[in-house]
Amino acid sequence: MQKKRWIRRKLPICICTFFIILYVDFQLRSSSLPKLSVAHPLVPGPLQRSIQEAPSPARDAQIPGGNSSDSRAEDGGHSDSEDAHVTLPELKLEDIFIAVKTTGRFHETRLALLLETWISRTKAHTFIFTDTEDEDLHSEGYNMVVTACLSDHSQQALSCKMSAEYDGFMASEKRWFCHVDDDNYVNPEALLSLLSVFPQDGDIYVGKPSLDKPITAHELLEGNATVTLSYGMFENKMISIEVKGSFSQEKDPSRFV
């Protein structure tokens, strides 16, 4: 009986001691394991950064024009279509080719009056087309173009001078062509103000009939003594316009080459 009583008394103590030993052993084992630290992203070194920043040929081949987003950011976000649109500079009086048509017998009358008035202010870009040599005008520095045209008022003679005016304008690379007769007065400032309001890259014809009756179609500018045309009216347009006389392809094929 005493032995059983002793076992019942000692058994709980043994069990408790056993669990204490297990607990202590577990704690000792846990403390001896290496601690795991949270992995932080590594800061790339110079070599790694250079590798990361190096362009990829395969990636660039998939994106036309390379890194388009970066290029748009560098140029302020402008698209290619906006850059393609080029605004022409402000129109100046020097951009207007003024052609004055005259003849030898009017050099000392009609033309002399123009030289004393408005041509004196537009001398550098006004060109006088005539059929007679004039040493006095040459010596004074005027832009004289002596044509081989007849001196009469026939359609052939007038078309011949207009042809010479056209050639002179195309060679000048100016932006507007203004044709006037030797009995016309031109206000240069008013002309510049008028032309400045029109689209500078369009096909513009500015003219006013000088007759009080219907105008009959002619091969020359009959009844429209003063006209002004933009460069776009001529550029690459001759092959699409049917003309006759000195302007025609039959009379002067070189114009249509």
Structure notes:
This protein is α/β, with parallel strands linked by helices. It has a domain at 93-256: Alpha-Beta Complex (Spore Coat Polysaccharide Biosynthesis Protein SpsA, Chain A), CATH 3.90.550.50. The chain is built from nine helices and six strands, in the order αααααβαβαβαβαββ. The chain has a six-stranded mixed beta sheet with strand order 3-2-1-4-6-5, with helices on one face. The radius of gyration is 46 Å and the shape is rod-shaped. The model is unreliable at 35-43, 46-52, 56-69 and 71-77 (pLDDT under 50).
Q: Please give the CATH class of the domain at 93-256.
A: Alpha Beta
Fraction of residues in H or I helices: 25-40%
Anisotropy-based shape: rod-shaped
The CATH architecture category of the domain at 93-256 equals Alpha-Beta Complex
Q: Count the E strands.
A: 6
H-E string: HHHHHEHEHEHEHEE
Which range does the strand content fall in?
Answer: 5-15%
Counting DSSP H or I runs of 4 or more residues, the number of helices is 9
- Find the CATH topology of the domain at 93-256: Spore Coat Polysaccharide Biosynthesis Protein SpsA, Chain A
- Main pleated-sheet profile: 6 strands, mixed
The low-confidence parts are 35-43, 46-52, 56-69, 71-77
Distance between the terminal alpha carbons, to the nearest Å? 138 Å
Mean pLDDT: 73
**Which strand order does the major sheet show?**
3-2-1-4-6-5
Radius of gyration: 46 Å
Protein structure class: alpha/beta
Membrane topology: Single-pass membrane protein; Single-pass type II membrane protein
Main location: membrane
GO molecular function: glycosyltransferase activity
Keywords: Glycosyltransferase, Membrane, Signal-anchor, Transferase, Transmembrane, Transmembrane helix
